[in-house]
Amino acid sequence: MSGLPMLSLSAQDVESLLELAPAMASQRSGATPEEAVRGIRIVATCTLSRAPVVRGVRLTEGCTVISIGSVEPDRREVDLDVLRRAESVVVDHPGTAAGPVVAALRDGLVSAAARTAGR
């Protein structure tokens, strides 16, 4: 999906999501990242990895991926296939996008046109 729009969440949107988090939370680990994501509908990552830990080819169709560890341009805890398969890409601050989002912008997988949720 070339040129996916990025969506920026407002502070109110983030607060609403945080209120839902406890009801949705569960933890699953595996011997490998592939085992940990197998059949899962929501995958959350928070690593400092410079190499992808989560690969799009291993994700369940329709899976939601929350990647919060790629805080520098050279950190990539998810591969570009995760973004390539995405229906949408959501970032909290488009001007500070890092890691795989930077690469996806460079490669035209997502567009730089951001909009705020609900607006």
**Physical arrangement of strands within the biggest beta sheet:** 4-1-5
Q: Number of DSSP helices? A: 4
Shape: globular
Name the helix and strand elements from N-terminus to C-terminus, one letter apiece.
Answer: EHHEEHEHE
Break the fold down into its secondary structure elements and pairings.
Layout: E1 4-8, H1 11-24, H2 33-37, E2 42-45, E3 64-67, H3 80-84, E4 89-91, H4 100-106, E5 110-116
Parallel strand pairs: 1-4, 1-5, 2-3
Please provide a written account of the structure:
- This protein has 119 residues and is an alpha/beta fold.
- The protein has one domain: Rossmann fold (3-Layer(aba) Sandwich).
- It has 4 helices and 5 strands, in the order βααββαβαβ.
- A 3-stranded parallel β-sheet has the order 4-1-5, with helices on one face. A two-stranded parallel ribbon has the order 2-3.
- The model is unreliable at 1-6 (pLDDT under 50).
In short:
This protein has 119 residues and is α/β, with parallel strands linked by helices. The protein has one domain (4-116): NAD(P)-binding Rossmann-like Domain (Rossmann fold). Helices cover 26% and strands 19% of the residues.
